[in-house]
């Protein structure tokens, strides 16, 4: 199978299987929430769109702006807040992640959500489909993100040698770090958490744990402007 | 100084000093032509725009489509065709390179043209300016290109540790290859030349020579839709 990586959502990329990564922290949180038992996650880019989803009933509101919980929301964007289930539905506002998911949905037959937490499960799912793979890094405000690209490289490394230039570069980038933790701490997203203090900094080692969740979140459709994701 | 790399022309990037790379082969050819004594190079994206420039008089027409010399043009896009001067002006049609140069011009106070051939000269020029640097990789049809990103990483490695995520990734990518030749041969642009046969393949080691030209091509303005570059 051919494997390609789009380092930013603006890049053209298409394949039957799309993999979306926003590892610090949206896709780590989505994996954790679904593994904990939420039935579905609805991802909206805008705060007001997420807030409006609470009208559906049985909805927990989660998300962040500038690293902090949004006013009036139940929870922030730390995966450690999603270890137990509060309601059937989690509605999240996540700008970069939602954009990458919607971009992938337009260009792929199926879209799966990846983090390090479910690394092995995502690789197995991609192999089972057997089709070409395009990995979409959410990035930060349209720019290249080291943390997402690291995870992309880890996936590429397990999916064979038929790689685009970007996939080869991602694999080499990932191999240049001795641990995920080191890559995440060096990334802009990681440094933002560190600058917010020890409570948010603790999310970095949490997100850097590998293959601890046997879950493959999949995009099941759009609910208005929100992407619906289920395990 | 802060250093950033835009792996594709669509990425947002801005800095006082812009550096443009389309190493296989447009910017290598521009460096070679100016070092040989051409007074200026006019880069146009479209073939017809380059052809129209021949009306200026004293113009050599150069460029390629799919690796081959354009019909009616004097020369192709091999830097080895530009070892001696034919006319004061070289008008080139180069799609990816022109796009990257024009993008950089919109976002930077000054734009310099880089290849491996003039690596040391470009690094020295960036240091002399002392301002923040944005490196623009031309890529291939809007996608990430391994060869351009390799050269970007080589420049980043010499410009200090204040790096964006993308700059850090480029430096690590470059460091993962023992030689430029290996990186260029592995790239899509390099493989395209290899697939065209030994005559074009010979451009790869030619472009992989480091710091052999003491020239810093600079964007001096636009001539209609063409970017004017002088040493």
Strand element count of chain A:
10
Measured on Cα atoms, how large is the radius of gyration of chain A? Answer: 16 Å
The H-level CATH homologous superfamily of chain A, spelled out, is: ComB-like
Total number of domains of chain A = 1
**Largest interface: pair, residues per side:** A-B, 26 and 25 residues
Structural class of chain A: alpha/beta
The quaternary organization reads as homodimer
Please state roughly what percent of the residues of chain A sit in beta strands, choosing from under 5%, 5-15%, 15-25%, 25-35%, 35-45% or over 45%.
15-25%
CATH architecture title of chain A: Alpha-Beta Complex
Query: How does the overall form of chain A come out from the CA principal axes?
Result: globular
Sheet bearing the most strands of chain A, described?
Answer: 6 strands, mixed
Helix content of chain A: 25-40%
Task: Kindly report the CATH topology of chain A.
Answer: putative 2-phosphosulfolactate phosphatase
Q: What is the string of helix and strand elements of chain A?
A: EEHEHEEEHEHEHHHHHHEE
Number of helices of chain A: 10
Q: Roughly how many Å apart are the termini of chain A? A: 24 Å
Can you give the mean pLDDT of chain A?
Answer: 95
Poorly predicted runs of 5 or more residues of chain A: none
Strand order across the biggest sheet of chain A? Answer: 5-4-6-3-10-9
The CATH class of chain A is Alpha Beta
Keyphrases for this structure?
putative 2-phosphosulfolactate phosphatase; 6-stranded mixed sheet; about 230 residues; homodimer; alpha/beta; 10 strands
């Amino acid at each position: 199978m051919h494997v390609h990586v789009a380092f930013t959502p603006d890049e053209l990329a298409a394949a039957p299987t799309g993999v979306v990564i926003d590892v610090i922290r949206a896709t780590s949180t989505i994996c954790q929430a679904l593994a904990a038992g939420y039935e579905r996650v609805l991802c909206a880019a805008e705060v007001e769109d997420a807030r409006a989803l609470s009208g559906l009933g049985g909805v927990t509101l989660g998300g962040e702006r500038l690293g902090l919980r949004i006013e009036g929301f139940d929870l922030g964007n730390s995966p450690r807040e999603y270890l137990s289930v509060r309601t059937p539905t989690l509605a999240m506002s996540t700008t970069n992640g939602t954009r990458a998911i919607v971009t992938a949905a337009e260009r792929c037959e199926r879209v799966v959500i990846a983090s390090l937490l479910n690394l092995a499960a995502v690789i197995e799912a991609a192999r089972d489909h057997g089709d070409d793979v395009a990995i979409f890094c959410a990035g930060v405000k349209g720019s290249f993100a080291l943390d997402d690209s690291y995870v992309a490289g880890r996936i590429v490394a397990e999916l064979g040698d038929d790689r685009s230039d970007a996939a080869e570069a991602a694999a080499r980038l990932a191999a240049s770090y001795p641990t995920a933790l080191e890559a995440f701490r060096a990334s802009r997203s990681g440094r933002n958490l560190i600058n917010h203090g020890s409570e948010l900094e603790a999310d970095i080692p949490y997100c850097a744990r590998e293959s601890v969740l046997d879950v493959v979140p999949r995009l099941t459709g759009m609910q208005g402007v929100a992407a619906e994701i289920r395990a």
